[in-house]
Design brief:
The chain is mainly α. The protein has 2 domains: about 150 residues, fold of a uncharacterized protein from magnetospirillum magneticum (Orthogonal Bundle), CATH 1.10.3540; about 30 residues, no CATH class. It has 12 helices and no strands.
Length: about 210
């Protein structure tokens, strides 16, 4: 195992302090598109009514995580995001989260996709914690995380999958999000065909959408 710290490890659990934050994203995003980051942070710190979070430190932590996600994509992506319906926005936000946090990207690819194609499509906290423990054998920083951090991480990730529309609300099983082909084609045009796989679309459907995206 290599010697790593939070600054040198590619992994982070900082998302546990924010979660998906769909509603909060939609509140802060217009500010981000109109002013610089320092001004956004100043406003959020000063006004507890924006995020409906009383503690200033908590507001600051959430705002910084949202800004981290906003920076991941160009302004044009976020401007288009604001024109989408709620289902499309939630999937788009999950896409950004996977691009922002390497840990969640690797869990989606190495754990969640295979789980979807297994006989048992119900993902559990134990599944996630076992996958994180496997990563910890190769990363000293992840290995240093407490059981409380790993538990919170697992709970937040499961919540993100549900909120992003990748879990069937009736059965609790992993399921593709309910989007039309045109919505998925946007990810093909951006060069991120992998996201269609991350959404459990079968190969033939991905090929159809790739043709549509031309």
């Amino acid at each position: 195992m290599s010697s790593q710290t939070g600054k040198t490890s590619p992994y982070s659990a900082s998302f546990t302090g924010a979660g998906m934050m769909y509603a909060e994203t939609n509140l802060i995003l217009p500010l981000y598109l109109e002013m610089d980051e320092k001004e956004v942070l100043r406003i959020v710190r000063a006004d507890s009514t924006i995020l409906q979070i009383k503690a200033e430190k908590s507001r600051d932590r959430v705002a910084k995580e949202l800004l981290k996600r906003f920076r991941m994509m160009p302004a044009s992506f976020w401007q288009n995001y604001l024109t989408l319906g709620e289902k499309e926005q939630r999937v788009a936000l999950f896409y950004v989260i996977l691009k922002t946090y390497r840990l969640l990207f690797e869990l989606q690819v190495n754990l969640v996709i295979p789980k979807y194609y297994s006989p048992d499509r119900i993902l559990t906290k134990n599944d996630i914690q076992a996958a994180v423990s496997e990563i910890a054998t190769q990363d000293e920083f992840v290995d240093s995380w407490s059981s409380e951090t790993r538990d919170r991480l697992s709970s937040q990730y499961l919540a993100m999958l549900r909120q992003g529309g990748l879990v069937d609300s009736a059965t609790g099983e992993l399921a593709p999000p309910d989007l039309d082909d045109d919505a998925f084609a946007a990810y093909v045009r951006s060069g991120d065909v992998w996201f269609l796989q991350a959404c459990f679309l079968p190969g033939y459907k991905i090929e159809q959408i790739k043709q549509l995206a031309l």
